[in-house]
Amino acid sequence: MLWNVAKRSVLHALAYHTNDPLPIALSPDATLLAAGGCAQVKNGSCTQGQVLLWNVLSGNRIGQLPGHLSTVWDVAFSPGGEILASSSYDGIELWNMTTRQSSGWLTISANDPNNSYTGYYGNILFSSNGKMAASYSSPGTNLSFVLWDMTQREPLAHVFNEQHSFQGSVAFSPNSQQLVSVVDHSSGVDSIIMWDIAIQSWQNHACTIANRNLTREARRVDTIH
Hints:
- The chain is mainly beta and 225 residues long.
- The chain has a single domain, classed as 7 Propeller (Methylamine Dehydrogenase, Chain H).
- 29% of the residues are buried.
C-alpha cells in the first residue's frame, strides 16, 4: 500500500505476490518505489532475484531490474537518488537509475578472512553524503558488517564479524563521520560502539602506526580491527 500521510488515506494498492516480506525503498524525491523479491523459483528455491519499480504518483509499475541469482534481501537508494543498491547472497548490485542498467557490484574479495560468510550483504544503507555505504547481517545471526567506499566501489576494511552475537545493527551519523554498531551478545552483555570513519583520520592513524607513508591498499588492510 502507498499512503498519503497528510490525509491518512491510501494512494495506491500495488499488486506484488510473494510469500516473503518485501524489502522496499522510496527514492529521495519520493517519485519511485523499489521492491526486491524473487522472479523465478525452481525446486522450491529462488533462482532469479528481481527489483520492481513503481511510479509513486500513478501507481503504475514502470520497470524490472533482474540481476541476482536468488531472492533480493534489501534495496536502498543513494542520497541523490542516482543509484539504487540491491543485495543478495551473491553481493550488492548497483543500478544507474537514469539508464536502469547495472553499473557494477560490491563484493568481498576471496582474500578477506571472512569472505565465506555472505550474511554481511543482508541490509544496506548509505551515508548522508553518499560517499560511503554499509552492509550488515540480518537479525538472528552474528553481527557482521562491511564499510564500502562508493567512489572506488570497494571495502574500506576487512569484514567486521562479531562472534557469539544474536543480532545487531549499524547506523551512520548525520555528518557521515561516525558509524555506530549495536550488538546483542549471547553472553547477555550488549555493546554499542562508535567508529571513527573519517577517511583522513584512518589514513593518518595508519601511517602513524606504521611510521611511514602507506599506499591505499596498505592503509585498508585490517584498518577496522
